[in-house]
């Protein structure tokens, strides 16, 4: 039983969906602490201006709400919806599959306004994109499991609850290297996601990686799932991640 756990952001990149696609069950870590101006509330699309990547940010209520979990964050005002829809239309209106996918994208965005929870918008977009990428992995929200623990302790508790034997971690969660014994004590093997964003035909050359997965969808349509999976590499063992970490630090 292999699981992965990750925080659901706004319009995630293809690597997020490849992580979901590799496991038997995926846990959306929606009870993690919200981080302002992070992937929780924003992402990038391809653009013809500036650096070539344009930020789309969802305004949220944060004043007077310190240390709130992601699942409680609320959208602040409605104007972002038209701004985001207009930006997507301007940059992808001539993309090959824009007309096929844009109506559903618009329908989701227009459903969530002021007072609605950011997590509900994020999950609606994640579920839509997962379907379009032919991902069938069942997903569960961590807030529905009502588990205790912090950071690695919370992850181990989640793995135990779901009967996991293998845990596929996001590559960025290198803090786990200090807590591997916690997983080992419960008989859980830890691996790290290994993914490189594949190059594909994109609007406004040259190709730029790490844009939202909607960039792939608008440009490549039904080929998107296969293209996403082409960036997949063999998961890394902790020793391999530790070695790469040392190689990146001069003198270590």
Summarize the structure in words.
This protein has 252 residues and is α/β, with parallel strands linked by helices. The chain has a domain of 130 residues. The protein is 36% helix and 12% strand. The chain is built from nine helices and seven strands. The strands form two sheets. The protein has a five-stranded parallel sheet with strand order 5-2-1-6-7, sandwiched between helices. Strands 3-4 form a two-stranded antiparallel ribbon. Helix 3 packs antiparallel against helix 4. The longest helix is centred in the middle third of the chain and has 15 residues. The chain is globular, with a radius of gyration of 19 Å. The two termini are 36 Å apart. 35% of the residues are buried. The mean pLDDT is 94.
Please provide a brief summary of the model:
The chain is α/β, with parallel strands linked by helices and 252 residues long. It has helices at 14-21, 79-92, 98-111, 118-132, 152-162, 180-184, 213-220, 224-229, 238-247; strands at 2-6, 25-28, 42-46, 53-57, 139-141, 166-169, 189-192. 36% of the residues lie in helices and 12% in strands.
**Rg value:** 19 Å
Q: Indicate the mean pLDDT.
A: 94
Instruction: Walk across the major sheet and give the strand order.
Output: 5-2-1-6-7
Regions with little confidence, pLDDT below 50 for 5+ residues: none
Overall, the morphology is globular
- Structural class by SSE content: alpha/beta
Main attributes?
252 residues; alpha/beta; 36% helix; two-stranded antiparallel ribbon
Write the layout of secondary structure elements.
Elements: E1 2-6, H1 14-21, E2 25-28, E3 42-46, E4 53-57, H2 79-92, H3 98-111, H4 118-132, E5 139-141, H5 152-162, E6 166-169, H6 180-184, E7 189-192, H7 213-220, H8 224-229, H9 238-247
Helix pairs in contact: 2-3, 3-4
